[in-house]
Design a protein that fits this description.
51% of the residues lie in helices and 8% in strands. With 96 residues, the chain is mainly α.
Length: 96
Amino acid sequence: MELNVQIDHVHLVVKVPPKLSISKLMGALKGKIALKLFSKYPYLRKNKLWGNHFWQRGYFVDSVGINEEIIRRYVRHQEKQERREQAQLSMDIAPL
């Protein structure tokens, strides 16, 4: 499993047997995580920051196949890459 949690999204690589419903897996995963976070950080629920929903309704799923190691590396290093891109963007638009 590869996991990368960022401020506004999560990248996750998991192996799922073909007979398991992806939508049920995502519902269970998002539900369990939200309950744990609401339990550990009660202010998240009290403030109703997201209309009492922790996750957005959607998600993206793709099969990995022969590119699994490339995808795993991407997930592992995504945050570093986004920081570099953000820093470059900041430098490009900085006033002279």
